[in-house]
Amino acid sequence: MKLSIVSEAHKQPNHPWMEEALRVNRRHFFGHQATGIGGAALASLLNKEGLLGAEEGYRVADNSGLAGLPHHAPRAKRIIYLFQNGAPTHVDLFDYKPELIARHGKPIPESFFQGKRFSTMTGDPTGKVMLQPVEPFKQHGQSGAWVSQFMPHTASIADELCFVKSMHTDAVNHAPAISFFLSGAQIPGRPTLGAWMTYGLGVESENLPGFVVMTSVSKGTTCGQIFYDFYWGSGFLPSRFQGVKFRGGGSPVLYLEDPAGMSRGLKRGLLDDIARVNRMKWDATGDPEIETRIAQYEMAYRMQTGIPELTDLSEEPEHVLEMYGPQVREQGTFAYNCLMARRLIERGTRYVQVMHAGWDQHNSLTTELYTQCKDTDQPSAALIRDLKQRGLLEDTLVVWGGEFGRTPFLQGDINNRPKWGRDHHPYAFTLWMAGGGIKPGISHGASDELGMNAIEKPVHIHDLQATLLHQLGIDHERLTYRFQGRYYRLTDVHGQVVRDLLS
Predict the structure, then answer these.
(1) DSSP label at 454?
(2) Residues whose CB falls within 8 Å of the CB of residue 491, separated by 6 or more in sequence, listed in order
(3) How far are the Cα atoms of 50, 206, 208 from residue 63, in angstroms, in the given order?
(4) Cβ pair 392, 343 in contact under 8 A
């Protein structure tokens, strides 16, 4: 019978029956007949509360992660990724280039772009003129880090930050570039960083997801990016490892509230009955998504108490709220999401992805870049300060950056300053990190004198991913998952840990 199913399904890519047929071998077959694994998450939770009934012998893997992990002593327990969709302009914010000022309005030399690929909006850069930074730079802190006046709050914590000024990537358009950063592949369908983390290291919180995503867009922006679900997807890993997206208004997670008249006891009994039916189905099919269904029902039940407590800011000190800026009380803003990120990791969430769109300044450097910096600068710096004063920065790794940089040359007419812009630029850009065993107060690597190409200690996307996993105690070459006959990993077949970044 399975052969007939396969014969009908083989024409459909990623068909679940086909995937199951390809996965099952003799050992799996007899293992599936002997016992099911779909209800272990439920069994473990019920057992802790003394609610496990007649099926107490039913077992599955729990949420503790893979055996043998971490591979070595971790420096970080969790990550907060402040992802700036749209690509912040490195030459206007963090990568000071006096030569850009000297060559303002002059054509870019061919030697800087020869043989390179740009977006269709630029095409051939021949004749494009260099554009000086919109705002002046100054050095800050004992480290002497160069930071633009666009980012005064970030500048004030420069000695806590590690600026990586030699980032480079392979993609020139937004969605493939973001997917590459977060999943190691430009084509959607691979597990993202948060999914790999929760798959390998497990989940610490019983009342909140291990992988949470929050998004925001500056008001009035004309260059917002789409937040695709695959930016926090689990790919071919079981879907219980995908990120849980919190909404920007109302209840962060839909359908958590019980209908009128539904008591906790009645809800508990209903979930138990549903779980029994699901376990029967798992015994018959072995579909791993049934395990996900059971685990998600239980997580939703527990989030009914976890979410209200998480979002209740009544006990936050006023001076902390003021530190994050005036938008911190407004749900759906970057400031609010930064505060939520801190509260989530305090409660056991392992990976928080805070995504803010609007950095795609093709013709709005002199207008909307000011808004983007105003909305994100203070909350980003406040998050670092907040984590440090609570003793959390030491084992929390914070990353700030976008999917690529922006061209040192102008997109637009140099005589029309209100419409100045910069195009996509993958060959050199800057991000910063803090905490989690990353060396503070340094600038790693460098771009050339025009900010065009990474020439000193270049860091590829896979190198960054390998380094983040290393800080979590994970050898990026050993955390793999077999799918369609191949072992996959976050870093694909590349990547080296950047030891110079580690304290």
Answers:
(1) E
(2) 184, 462, 465, 466, 469, 476, 477
(3) 19, 9, 12
(4) no
Return the pLDDT at 293.
73
The residue behind tokens 């699901």 is: 278
pLDDT tens, residue by residue, 384-417: 999 999 999 999 999 999 999 999 999 999 999 9
The CB density around residue 54, as the number of other CB atoms within 10 Å, is 7
Note whether 79 and 396 are within 8 A (CB).
Answer: yes
Break the chain into its structural domains and give their ranges: 1-34, 37-64+255-313, 78-250+331-501
CA geometry: angle 340, 296, 23, nearest 5 deg: 125
- Using the structure block, give the residue that is written with the tokens 């996959």: 488
- 9-to-1, 4, 21, 23, 318 alpha-carbon distances in Å: 13, 9, 10, 14, 59
Beta-carbon contacts of 281 under 8 Å, excluding residues fewer than 6 positions away, are 38, 287, 290
Lookup: tokens for 189: 């369908």
CATH architecture of the domain covering 78-250+331-501? 3-Layer(aba) Sandwich (3.40)
Neighbours of 102 (CB within 10 A): 11
Between CA 484 and CA 80 the distance in angstroms is 31
How does DSSP assign 208-274, residue by residue? S-SEEEEEEE-TT-S-PPP--GGGG--TTS-GGGSPEEEPSSSSSSTT-SPPTT--HHHHHHHHHHH
Per-residue pLDDT of 158-204, as tens digits, reads 999 999 999 999 999 999 999 999 999 999 999 999 999 999 999 99
Parallel, antiparallel or unpaired: strands 244-246 and 211-217: parallel
